[in-house]
């Protein structure tokens, strides 16, 4: 029986316990817990930025990506004094506001970080609109083609978007907003976009909610973007064999059919150093004119 190994480190003035630093979390990539914590440190400015003012759900894999996992909404106990919470509907969500908090979660083998669509400070009016392209099959070679078609349609409507890999099988389009529309109003726009694309490309897209009825079509999920639901945070690792990271892309990368597996924990630091956060390059916009147009078509 192996003996547990523990040590302590000081991060930003806080003492952290690191247990089993040599435990393999992503065996295929040779990523131990110690390496994972190093990579989380690199990702921390960007990951924390996109989890700020959101309710955080993590997924824990105590024995690595091939072991059992569970969702963690409530703050684990006991928690260090530097960990604070956002309390909502009886759940004590960890507030991801510092590197010590992130590394504490990482030491607990929280490998994935999912943030609520709604902001804590303004839950009724989202600061971005998200279209989630969800393949019905595990390996979908058309996913980047599909993302490009959605991006082109949005561009034709005067809507600026940034594509982001989910780090799993899908792609999400992020549209930064002036927070002047409700989730319900954005769903109306999503239904309009989804219906148009499904009619125009019936062999590629579907808005069928039931997975068993989608066949091999790519689901345009506009319903998931709603208060109380979550999305994999930009720059969150994924608990998949390739240690992929949810990564914003350039549109020319999408059109070159980039692979989701191209972006992972072992190379994301070089990309961030070169590119910074691509989600910062689009200014917040209002979609109220699109909503008005849709309303005029229904009269």
From TrEMBL:
EC numbers:
6.5.1.1
Q: Name one GO molecular function term.
A: DNA ligase (ATP) activity
Q: Which Pfam families match?
A: LigD_Prim-Pol
Which key words are in the record?
A: Ligase
State if Ligase is listed as a keyword: yes
Name the PANTHER family for this protein: BIFUNCTIONAL NON-HOMOLOGOUS END JOINING PROTEIN LIGD (PTHR42705)
The protein's name is: Non-homologous end-joining DNA ligase
Q: Which organism is it from?
A: Paenibacillus solisilvae
Source organism phylogeny: Bacteria, Bacillati, Bacillota, Bacilli, Bacillales
Q: Which gene encodes it?
A: ligD
